[in-house]
From TrEMBL:
Basic and acidic residues bias locations: 9-18
Organism: Opisthorchis felineus
InterPro entries given in the database record: BACK, BTB-kelch_protein, BTB/POZ_dom, Gal_Oxase/kelch_b-propeller, Kelch-typ_b-propeller, Kelch_1, SKP1/BTB/POZ_sf
Membrane-crossing residue ranges in chain numbering: none
Keyword tags: Kelch repeat, Repeat
Annotated BTB domain residues: 71-138
Region entry Disordered, spans: 1-33
Protein name in UniProt: BTB domain-containing protein
Keyword Zinc-finger appears in the UniProt entry: no
Any coiled-coil regions, as ranges: none
Amino acid sequence: MANCPKTDSAIDEHKDTDSTVVGRKSSDGNTPLLSHIRSRTSGVVSHKRSSDHSAQILAGLNELRQTGQFCDVTLKAGSKTIFAHRVVLASSSHYFNAMFSHPVLESYSECVTIQDVDEAALVHIVEFIYTGDLLVNEETVETLLPASNLLQLPFVRDACCQFLQSQLQPENCLGILRFAKFHNCNDLWETTRHFAEDNFAKVASSCDEFAELSTTELEQLISSDRLIASEGQVLEAVRRWVGHDLGKRQKAAKRLFERVRFGLLSRDEIVRLGRSAEFLSSNPWCKDLLLQAAIYHLSTSNGEELMALEQFRHRRSTSEVLMVIAGFLDSDLASVETFDFRTGLWTTVPDDETVVQSNTSLFPAVPDIPRARSFCGVAVLQRQVYVIGGCINGNAIRFVDIYDTVENSWIRGPELRRKRDEVGVAVLGQKIYAIGGFDGSKALYSAEVLDVESGTWRSIASMSCARRRLGVACLDDKIFAVGGELDDQILCSAEYYDPSTNMWTSIADMEMVRRLPAVCGLGSRLYVIGGEDAEESYLTSVEYYSPETDTWYTVSDMNEARSASGAVAYGGLLYVVGGENDIVCLSSMETYDPQTDTWTVCSQEMKSARSGAGVAIVELPTNSI
């Protein structure tokens, strides 16, 4: 007992240090030291966690596996034998947990054969279980994903799906789509299906698996409201698929053609198909579909009853907008504006070049055209918008820029054979025509056509007279060139071009001379709108040409005089936008209803006034996806 005070003294000396001293227990079972600490630090808790403890455990277990220590199970797949620990496998996989927990042969067998799992995939999976590291690439993903499904390893499965998603291309997406469906990877399947729908035209033309789709698979794909492609591309894809094995697939053709929305085909496409004896003889059920589509296009009403039918309903992932490109306001413009027919709002890229849209618009803003210009022509073909010719800083150009509606970006196109300012442009029969214009020194008689497949322009027959500042539009199977100017003389003459004969034919003169008119076909009429007369007065007057009678008729005047404006037809109405009068360039737009012979000024104006702009109806992907 003599030593007790000394011990207490020793404890006293070290009470504020980290040294551990074992002393006599007090009556409550605690040492005097612990009692002293508790009295001074009541309520304080110290909690420490090793940041690398888990990694150290895994590394230690993997080392034991590699050296064969304490291993109690051997996995076999093919020719591979893998040593492992039951507890490690069971803690990582519900599959192994169930196997080792239930009274089945594998639960006590030292060697377990894993059926339906690739041997290399099993090696990768065991490595992952012991290390947390996973190698996913083109060589491993096809065996890893089904193995992860069977062995119930969600991390491995998700990693494989993410890798496949990152590799999506038009050439491989259908293979990945089938792979995802077979292995019940629903998220990957949905993502891949959307990719195929968004890139349908490229998928149909470049993916080998497209021709191997089943009837049901193709029907589901082309029935989608999300599909981003022109309806002509959808129709052509179906025809190629049927033709790949005509004997076996002819019976499915009717079912598939009924899913093509014939009402969304262009008028040129409808006419071409209606005149194709080969198409109609091999697909007789298409006659009624083409007839309904033709009636829809010829109707001057809004066609609301037909729009309710699937054949005429726009796919929800795309919709048509009025696009106004470039033009002139103090200088050449590069900006592009789109008018959403559903909301009545304009969308553009603001001055800071940030791509934005209005809160109620479903469409992204279109980026500026790379080369500002004015008095250019615009054509739309196969979901691409061609901006052709015009002038830059007053100089005539041959340049062509192409806007890809799917990629929302611009690329350079094949240049014209000649410089063409104040040019007329039209699309007919899957070809683009550039007519007349001004080459910097004289008005032009000549015209040329772009073969989109070869990417080359070639000359066609020249007009009967040279025309600059003319108006050009299509009606039926012909391209009309109207008015314009020649050697300071403003013209009232007009003529049309027939591609089947490569000839121009004169028609009756307009009731008055017009340069820089807006020209547009609607129903069976060719409308010529505004422009300037011989006294260079800006016009509000409008007239239309009837091919049936070879006669011009006047209709109600516009609310505002316009020259160098643009005109399009949509929903049975004419839309006339921009232009200039004797005071200013215009940002306003007005519509004409042929049923009531009335003009109505739209409440919303463009963000920028402009004359000499390119104008077209364009089908754009929406942001509602």
